[in-house]
Every structure is written in C-alpha cells, then in structure tokens.
Design a protein that fits this description.
The structure is a homotetramer of 369-residue chains. Chain A has 369 residues and is α+β, with helices and mostly antiparallel strands. Chain A has ten helices and 18 strands. Helices cover 28% and strands 22% of the residues of chain A. At the A-B interface, strand 1, helix 3, helix 7, strand 11 and helix 8 of A face strand 1, helix 3, helix 7, strand 11 and helix 8 of B.
Chain lengths: 369, 369, 369, 369
Amino acid sequence: MKNTFGSSVSVTLFGESHGPAIGAVLDGLAPGIPVENAAIEQALALRRPSGSISTARQEPDPFEIISGVFNGKTTGTPLCILIRNTQARSDDYAATRALVRPGHADYTAFCKYHGFEDPRGGGHFSGRLTAALVAAGAVATAALRGKGICIGTHIARCGGVADRAFGDLEADLEALRTLPFAALDAQAAADMQAAVSAAAADGDSVGGVLETAVTGLPAGVGEPWFDTLEGVLAHALFSIPAVKGVEFGSGFAMAEGRGSEMNDAFRREDGKTVTATNHNGGVNGGISNGMPLLFHCAVKPTPSIFRPQQTVDLFTGEEATLQLTGRHDPAIVHRARAVVDAMTALTLCDQLALRFGTDWLAPAAEAAP
Amino acid sequence: MKNTFGSSVSVTLFGESHGPAIGAVLDGLAPGIPVENAAIEQALALRRPSGSISTARQEPDPFEIISGVFNGKTTGTPLCILIRNTQARSDDYAATRALVRPGHADYTAFCKYHGFEDPRGGGHFSGRLTAALVAAGAVATAALRGKGICIGTHIARCGGVADRAFGDLEADLEALRTLPFAALDAQAAADMQAAVSAAAADGDSVGGVLETAVTGLPAGVGEPWFDTLEGVLAHALFSIPAVKGVEFGSGFAMAEGRGSEMNDAFRREDGKTVTATNHNGGVNGGISNGMPLLFHCAVKPTPSIFRPQQTVDLFTGEEATLQLTGRHDPAIVHRARAVVDAMTALTLCDQLALRFGTDWLAPAAEAAP
Amino acid sequence: MKNTFGSSVSVTLFGESHGPAIGAVLDGLAPGIPVENAAIEQALALRRPSGSISTARQEPDPFEIISGVFNGKTTGTPLCILIRNTQARSDDYAATRALVRPGHADYTAFCKYHGFEDPRGGGHFSGRLTAALVAAGAVATAALRGKGICIGTHIARCGGVADRAFGDLEADLEALRTLPFAALDAQAAADMQAAVSAAAADGDSVGGVLETAVTGLPAGVGEPWFDTLEGVLAHALFSIPAVKGVEFGSGFAMAEGRGSEMNDAFRREDGKTVTATNHNGGVNGGISNGMPLLFHCAVKPTPSIFRPQQTVDLFTGEEATLQLTGRHDPAIVHRARAVVDAMTALTLCDQLALRFGTDWLAPAAEAAP
Amino acid sequence: MKNTFGSSVSVTLFGESHGPAIGAVLDGLAPGIPVENAAIEQALALRRPSGSISTARQEPDPFEIISGVFNGKTTGTPLCILIRNTQARSDDYAATRALVRPGHADYTAFCKYHGFEDPRGGGHFSGRLTAALVAAGAVATAALRGKGICIGTHIARCGGVADRAFGDLEADLEALRTLPFAALDAQAAADMQAAVSAAAADGDSVGGVLETAVTGLPAGVGEPWFDTLEGVLAHALFSIPAVKGVEFGSGFAMAEGRGSEMNDAFRREDGKTVTATNHNGGVNGGISNGMPLLFHCAVKPTPSIFRPQQTVDLFTGEEATLQLTGRHDPAIVHRARAVVDAMTALTLCDQLALRFGTDWLAPAAEAAP
C-alpha cells in the first residue's frame, strides 16, 4: 500500500497541488458518528496560513463530502472528501522544474517517477495535500471525542522561543481547539511570530518542535512488537512533510537519565492504577498504560527560502544557482500542528477499532434513523 | 498483523523468555543468498552481554535453521530460525508477578492479555526475543552487502559520554562489524563502560543514543506519504524495547536551525548528483536520495534497577514497594545496537524488494545448483 | 483494509448509488503509462446496459480524472477517477427501505451498519460502483497491454444457452475488446438475449457463467501459500456483486476426472516449456506457469425481480410481501464481464509489481518529458 | 506478505517436506483460550493417511508448542507449533529433480526460485505443510466452538460417488468431528474408497468435491467490497494444494437458475430473521446473514500417478518421460477436508476479531490465573 495508511480504519490520500482537486478517503470508521461541516472547517482553518508570518496567498479549502455520510452521520462505508484546487495554474513550470530545490522532494521524486511526476507546486508531494488529511482527521477527532479521547498539539519551540509546558491538560487541550497560533503562552506566541518574521525578513525560514498530548486513551492498546503504539504513531507522523524526529514521553532526554529517574512509579489514584511521572509518555512495552499519551515532533525549517542556493539541473546534470521567487511560508510548524492532530486521530481510530472492534467508536446509543 | 513486520520481505517473531524457544520467520527474501552460520553467530555475539558492564549470566544463543535454506543458500521460501532457551526455568514467578515493575510492560501486558500472558522473565516482551531478530537480521544484512549496502550503528552517547562522530563511513562501518562495544573512539568506549559500572554500583542504570549509517542505498526508495522511508524505519525501530525516540539526519537539531543552514545543497561529484551536507539524513520527501541514510535512536535506561521502587499489586490493587533481585543489565544501549542494525536490514530488504522486485536482492549470477 | 484491494498496486473504492459521485483511487501503478479517455469510455460502455435486455434507464458515466495523470500519462502517484451520479435522487426511499430485498445486501448492511447505511438504490453496495472499478481497470488494462498481457471475458453460459469455447485466443480476446454482448458465437448471443428477454417477460431474471482468459502472463508469479495466484484472483473476483463461484482451469470438472486425464503434460514448443493441455488454467502450486490463465465465474440471477417475494420488515420485525417496481436488469452477467476484466487487470498489475518491482509495468522507453 | 495470512488473527507457515521441521505461527488469537493437545492430535489424525486408500507410509506428526501457551491457555501472543519431520531424508533427489512432475509445482517453483528451492519431496510446496495449518486450525476451532461456532466438511463427491446432502447440521457437524473418512453416508464412504482403490490399481488417482458448513456465525461479518466474506474465505481455501474451485451456497448452479428460484426469501423464526432457503450460502453482499455458511471446494486428482507421463528436463530443456516410483496417495480429498476446516477456522477467527475486537473470542469468564 502506498498512499493508504491504517488497517481497520484507513485513510487514502490523492491529488496534486495544481491538479483539479486533492482528497482523502476515510474508510472503516464506525457508523453513526456525527459529521459536522463546521468541525471540518475549523480544523482546516487551523492549518491555513494566518497572519503576517504566513504567505499572503489566499488558500480557501472548499471541501465536498462525496460519500460515506448520510443524514449527517457516518454510514460506516468510505467517506471521501474532495477539496478543489481553486487556484490551480498550469502556468510556466518548465522554466524552473529543472533546478531541483534543496531540502525538497524534487530530486527524489525524479528518481522514483522518472520525470513523469507532476512538478507543479510540488505536485503530489505538496504540503497542500495535508488539507485533505486534516479534513479526514476532523471526522476521526469527532469520533474520538465521542469516547472521551482528546488530542491537542502546541508549539513547544519555534525560532529559539520555548512555549510553557503542558499544565492542566484538560484546559490546555480545550484551548488548543481554537487557538490560531498554538503556543499556550501568549508572550511565547508573540516572540515566536517575531522570530519567524525576522527569518522571513532575511529571506530565510525556521522550524520548531511540536508537543502533542492525548487524554482518555484506554490502557491495553498497541502491540508488543512491530505494531507498538509508538511505532505505528511514528509511522504516521513521519508522513507529515518536514517532520524529521519523533520522541515519546521524555524521549531523547531519557537517554541522558538514570533508571531511577526515568522509571515511572505506579501508584493508585481514585481506584485506578496510574504512574507518578510520565517519562514514558503513556506507553510501556508498546502498549498504552492509560496515562496521557505524550510525544514531540521535530519540524525542520521550511526548505523554500529566498536566498540563492546551489543546486543541479536535472536534465543537463550541471551545477546551477537557484533563486526562488513567489510566495512561500517562512515557517510551517504552526500549521503542521493541525496535521499532527489529524494523523494522531486517524491512527488512534485505527488502533482502537483493531483492539475493540469496528463498532467501538460508534456513539453509545446506536439506533437506526 | 501483530508480530509480523514487512510486506514483501517480512519477519514474524515468536517466543517467550522462559518458554522452550524463541524464533523468527524471515519470509520473502530472494533465493540464492548465502546463509553462513558464522555471520549469524557474529551478529548474535554483538547482542550478547559482554564484559563487566553486563549481567554475569551466560546466555548462549544456540540457533537452529528450521527451513528456508538449502545447500547453504536461501530458497526464497520462509526461513525459520529457532533459538532454544537453554536456561528456561519454570520456577517461582508467582511471588513476584503481582508487583508490576515500573518502566516495564508488566502492567500493560496485563491490561491487554488479562493475566493470561506468560509473566516469567517478561515473557513475550523480553529483550531476549531480540536475539531472533538479530539472527534474521544477519541474513538480511548479508543480502544487502551482496548489493553493496552496508549498515553500522555506534553508541553516540552513553552515561554522559559522547563518542566521536562518524568519519570515513566505509572504515567506520567496517570496524563496527566486529567491535564488541560499539564506540568508535577507544577512550569514549572506556569512559562509557566506566559510567555504566558507576550506575551499576549505585543499583541504577543508564541509557544512551545510537547513531546508524547506511551506505549504498539507491535513490528512489520510499513513498511520498505514509510509507515514507523515515516512517517505515521508525515503525521498525520503535519495536525495539527501550527505544523512545527516532530522528533522521540532524533531526531535532534541524528544528532549531534556519532553512539556509539545514537545506542540503545539491552538487555533482563523479558524475552523480549528491548533497553538500546531509542534514536530511539521506531522505527527502520520504524517499532516499542516494546519500548515506543517517538516524539516531534514543534508548532509555534499563528499567530493571536494584533500588526500591513504588508500584502497585496487580491483584490486590494496593500500593507496594518493589525490590528487584537477580541479574539485570545496568545498560542495554551497547546491546541494542545489534538490534537496530537488524531491524534496519530487515526493513531495507523489504523496501528494496517492494521497489525493485523480489529477485533484486539475489546475487547477480543466478544459477540453479 | 476494507474498501482497498491490492498491495503494491491498489484500488480504493468509494461512493453510494445516489450520493454525489462514486469513484476509485488507483495507486501504485508505474509512471509513464498512457491514459486515454477513449479507452476508459470504451470499458465503461461495455459495462453499461445495452439493448432491449437491459434497463431502459440512461446511465451515462461522465468521469473526471482528479489526480495522478500529467501530460496524458500516469505520474506514479494515486490516480483518482470520479464519476458523478447524474441521476442521484433523494426521493422517497423511506417507503421501501423497511422491506429488505431477498438476495440483496439490505439485511446484511443493516446488521453491519446498524441502520446508518445509505439505503437509496443499494447505497454503497450498488452495482453502480463497479463503474469506478471498470474505469480504474481500463488504466490497468492499458498498462498490461503495454507488456503484451491481454485479458478477455466471454459469457460461457446464460439462460441455458452455451457460447462456443475459446478458440484462437488472440483473435477472441481482440474481438471481445469491442463486442457489446460478449458471446463469441453470434447465434449464442442472440439466443442468450432471447432467454433474458423471456425471463424479463416473466418478471424474473437469469444468471450465467463468465469465462476469462489472460495471455502473455509471465511464469513465476504468485506465492506457494495464501497469496497463490488463484487465491488472490478469487479474492478479487468474489468482490464483484453476484459472483458466487470461481474455478480455475477445468475447476469443478477436475474433481470428476483422474490424474492421468487432468495432469497437464509438459512439452517444448518454440524453445519454451509449455503444457499440452491446460486443465490447471495456467497455475501450478499457486504460481503462473506461462500458459494462458483461465477461469470461470458463476454469476447469480439478478435478485431484483418483479414477482411478489416474502420478506421481513426491518423495523417492525414482521413478515411482509415485497413487490418491486421501477427499472431493474433481468440479467447482469453480460455487464459483469467488464467488471471481471477490470478486477483481473487490477489484480495482475499488483502481482506483477510485487514480483518484478514498481517500474516493471512502465513503458520500455522511459524518458522524462 | 507471502506465507502469512490474516490481519488481526494471522497464520505464518514455514518448512519443507524434508527439512528438519515444518511449523506455523498463529498470532492474534485472544488470550485465555484452552489449548488441548488432544484436540490438536485429533485434527492431525483426520488429516493423516488412513486405511488402504492412502499411502502405506507412516507419517506421525509429533508436534511441539514452542510459544504462546501458558498454563494450558493461549497467552494472546504468537503461538508457534513445530512438527518435526521424523522421516526427513537427504537422499538422492538429484536423479529425479530435473524431470518436473505434471500437475505439480516443480516447474513453477523453478521459475520463481531459479533452482534454489528445496526440491526434496516437493519442498515448501509439499502437502506435508498442511499438517501445520491443521494444528493451528485446531486451536482456532476451539476458540470458535467456545463461541458456539461449529465447522464441518464432508466429501460431497469422490470418484464418481456422491455423499448424501447435509441434513441435521448440528448432528452432522458433530459426527464429522471424529469421522475418519468424511462421508456422511456409510455406503457412500465405502463406494468412494472402492473407487479410490480402483484408481490406485490403475496407477491413477481421483479428486473430489468437499462441502463445508459453518453454524453459529453472527450476522454482519465481512465487507461489501474486496474483503467480502466469500472473497477472504476463497483466498484462504485456494491456498490448499489441489483446490481448483470454490463456490458459495448453490454456486455455479445459481448461474443456471432464475431469480425467483435463487433469491432466499426472508422470514421470521423464533424471533430471528432467517431465510427460507440458503442458496446464497449464508452471505449477502459479502456479509454474513446469520444463516449457515455453506461452500464447496473442488479438489483435483492427486497429480502423482504411476503411469508414464510426458515432461521436460529442467536443465537440458529436452522432452522426457517421467515414471514416478515410491509411495503416493491415489486421492487426497479425504485428507484435505481437515485442511479446509482449518483454513476456515483461521479465516473466521480473523474476521471475527476484526469485526468485534481482539478479545471477542476469549472465553466469557475472563480472569487472571
């Protein structure tokens, strides 16, 4: 399988940046889950460029649900969402396609597709396709919320600025649902945006680190080998363009500590077994332990910059200098948070359906309409 | 699929720490690949505890090839390797099983398997099972070497000590094939082992960071979405017990830099397109670009420590204090390097077979015996 | 995976009979394969009701290629084909939905989707969705023809009338490419259509048997166990609504013969190893042997008939009598042949890509445009 | 995946006829299911040659459970069963391997594995491997019986002799559990065995048709497209060596009837919706309807016969005459019934776990030991 992810609940992604449309097929989700256009629009809005630090380009995401929803609820059969590319242009890409952009997929796409790939705007590799993931993810998110499972991602670091740590998770996740720029601390948000603007003024770009929390996930989900919860989530998260690292719980910092610091002691709280700390990020032995799931994603700086870059001409094989023009985001980390949420939701729906059956995510009071 | 990984080339893992045997089924590898017992023994030796910093326990790995090899070469049909548990004991686990070990899978195994899991020595979750992965990986490694693809992993950090960076990759990877303690710098190796011993003297444990390089991988391997080379490798690597983070190329450090620093400029060298730097770790847009594949794995400190730990009794639900006895490694990062190599080899064989067909890994001069 | 089939080359199906559109995502096909609208239209025409024996209803199939084609050729990324439902109606289904139609999926859909399924016109279970499979199959067929692999299906039996057996396969398969009613013998075609008309006049329906031949398939494709060529094809073919039996070569008739009659002796012809007979239908031990692939599919009579039928009310649980009205085909076997061709093409593309790599189906003279 | 079948519950098969052992890994089955050696032995006994019509060769099946069972119950982790090849011989196969046996996989194995395959006794293609499937199937069967789901297969036709049809399914399935030669009618059993003996006396072989019934399967299992219950079962059943046709319900006979005869009218019985007839074999639209699942498998005559056969020399490419010697079954249909039962049980366990979750097959009263 290439552009399909998941087993019991799966998503199939298609489209190119400048083709007629992009879209996703979300399959296997339980029947009876409410599908609200407003929720999809809200998720898409969080992914869209906003404010001074993003490209001025308008990028509306007019979506159409092609299938899988009847009377406002999922049918259980494939839900296809189509997003038209309203600004698709067939204009002159030939002039620039020969010069592969450093840090982008232009060169590797050529190696894989032998020049038959659609090069316009990154084609199938474009970050534009994440809009379809976010739309599908919004439906998955609604399903999870119906079972008390909440997901939220904030910008832990960007442009040398650190956000505050997660605190009251319930409140933080609720706030993140509508926060356009996902730093929990307002000053950090302002500083991050200033840092992005400064990079933009230099014709440059910045990256960042996203931190995600998931609450309400039952214990006992995941497999001991291979399909560990961490492995499957990382698999999903590395699909997101620009993600170059994934760590769970204290992650790389665990490697620096001792066992006595990093083991999470068990204790009892309100009749439940919990851990006193959560360095393991809610996963032991590949399986959820009932504590919040915690992970970070490293997002590299946007490769599209306005400085001259050394590159190679695909067709002549000669070295050349690339000078990009046009509109490009000086950072995408603040947009990627919506994609991280979406991929997390899609992955967890799959894991839960595999574990507890295909009806588990359906609303409790199932009834034929 | 639960204990099976891979699509065209797959590995299936079975066994429990104290059952009769553990083993792996390696399926889909091309026919005609030489299978040498010495290579498997060598890989197993690198995984085995060695020297003063590992448990004194003898853990021989007497393997038997059950199927899939004929006249010393792979047949192309499933290759099953069985490793008997020579020290299997059915002794008194009941006394300790109720107290779940912090940082281990005892509690999550109970949540998933409802108490029917084999608890002796960690059962199916035991690091012991990685021996079977290493044995299967040794066959995959031989297949890759036949095509000029080399893999090597060193201990980049352990117990606060850093190894030197990779230098001449060809020489370093060659050295790592037989280095019992995989630090490239001899002093660093000594210091790391001293740090491990110090932790052991405290009844404690340490973790570390492994760095892996792969040379010779062709460009054009991997998928743009979901089955990105990074995603699939991370999926595999997170199966390794104690791995809590995976990053490619400069990984989390990329998130701190600017695009102008992190983009890898393209240039020509010996008639080939290469990159001047390799911050992206050999992967752009999910697809290999022909540069060395580079990644780090964070390995947490061994959860088995000899200090009293707070925990919970599985059956009474009461809080309790756990005091481990017996033999436990104060670090596993130096052993995990062999498992990282194995999982990398198995994953790359699958990716290459998917991309280029099931015969691609077969030796060039195919001939019926 | 639910509505996705295939591994290296896959197809994902979505849509409902009366929703906005149906469609398919064809993923993993090699880049550079010509995609001609005329070929897709031709395949769709063969699936469409034609002449007096099919419903009078006009059912145009206006398709749109959403992605995966650039400059008239496949890009190698997902190819999404959308077919709008021009005659979608939201009208009064409530009156009839309670009475589940015998032989249809109404009752089982309710058992699986708990009443949330779209019941209009069969919803996601509608034979209408096969149009999307046929459109995707037309692209796969073009890819196979580029490698000298041809597929054709005729109506071996329908309404008690038998077609002549396959003769000169090359000529027969060529004729079938455009034959609107796929009986090789003109008189048989006329008799079959008369039999269908007679059934229709009785308010009844008929079924039939389809026979498929594939020429040019290389030897060595398929797996010894589980993913046998027969098993994978049968898996695909049973997806086709109304198919209730699949047999390879002489199939059920082999069960009646002796080994001396049914073994296909090997001999040499033009420097190639061939078999003197082909009772095994081109497959030994699950793997293609280079002879034509031959199989039959049993297609049951259309369940929609105009006679009163006993059924049950889904909501009251009471027995009731169902009297269908509207337009329904008295036979679909003559239309199903196009779907059998499509599923065969899609399945073989997958098998070939798995065996020989993802570029194998690409035209020989690959060149960047 | 090649020698692995299933998704949530899977089986991986390994071994060669004359290697040290064959085996299977059964993964994903719920924890807590009793595993009784006697049940496995009983299933293996039904597969073993018995009486005058089978080869005189003793073929004991001494199995060892390597993993996945603790205190007599499944742990939920992979269950590996190993069956030693006690009569493995490395003797002189070279003399005969060049002459590929008609109807066998010798030639196609060579096309696929290029001569590296183990040719001794059919190697990995040997029917011997079905013993491992039967052993794994016995565990799956026990799990299903715990949920009231029963499977049984009788020899509907063999050597021109027909068994009586299924009658009282409960009684018939119970009888089949221990019937060594699975014809329900004693006279038919005797006549079939006489027919097999007559063929054997001619140096020839016969095939037959197996009919399987499954009772107790819940409605709502299976998918509308691709992973239809019929498609998935057929996929599994065609793995069984010698199976060349699979039909559900009235199968190919449905193609000859009219809709009014073949539609199964719904009615109510004991508060349940049932069908008056069962021409559809318990499946509508790919999904179980709660009626007994019914299907036939066509088993071709054993290809190993003692008559001279025309064939080709693999290495010289010249035509040759093959005269088999040694011991070979003149029929395998009476043995294949045990394999059909096993593959059915394994497939249904997977389908049920996918539908209802991984714990569904666990005994109702789950409790930690």
